[in-house]
Design goal:
The chain has about 140 residues and is an alpha+beta fold. It has helices at about 5-15, 55-75, and strands at about 30-35, 35-45, 80-90, 100-110, 115-120, 130-135. A six-stranded antiparallel β-sheet has the order 1-2-4-5-6-3, covered by helices on one side. Strand 4 (about 100-110) and strand 5 form a beta hairpin. It is globular.
């Protein structure tokens, strides 16, 4: 595999330190990476929340997108791909101060298409917050 865990950390750092939208994830940390699986954590802070004081659904979608793409980068082909479809099921709220785990797993990587699943869970309780599915076009 051409990508190391350290180079994966550097790629994530580059992404979140940009002036683009991904900077909202600057407080997310990479905990572990094995081929096709990445686990990150983040403490929910006020900047991550909606008017109700819970993790914003749009940020949840961004977490699904970015962490599943990171898992794709940590495969033999190391291609980020382009999003084709993404869906998220929201099952419970994460409040300010709670730590969440974001676990992305590549389900299948074909010649042109990859499929990933991402679970957001409460780190303390293990309760599922949201589950996302992400389909990406990899090209040739």
């Amino acid at each position: 595999m051409g990508v190391t865990v350290e180079s994966l950390r550097e790629a994530m750092k580059y992404m979140v330190e940009s002036q683009g939208f991904d900077r909202v994830l600057r407080k997310m940390k990479l905990l572990s990476a094995t081929p096709g699986k990445v686990v990150c954590e983040m403490k929910v802070e006020e900047e991550h929340t909606n008017r109700g004081g819970t993790l914003h659904g749009g940020l949840t979608a961004t977490l699904v997108d970015v962490v599943s793409t990171t898992a794709l980068l940590y495969t033999e082909r190391a291609l980020p791909g382009v999003s084709v479809d993404m869906n998220i099921t929201y099952t419970s709220a994460a409040k300010i101060g709670e730590e969440i785990l974001i676990t992305a797993q590549i389900l299948k990587q074909g010649r042109n298409i990859a499929f990933a699943t991402v679970d957001l869970t409460n780190k303390a309780t293990g309760k599922l917050i949201a589950q996302g599915r992400h389909t990406k076009y990899l090209g040739n």
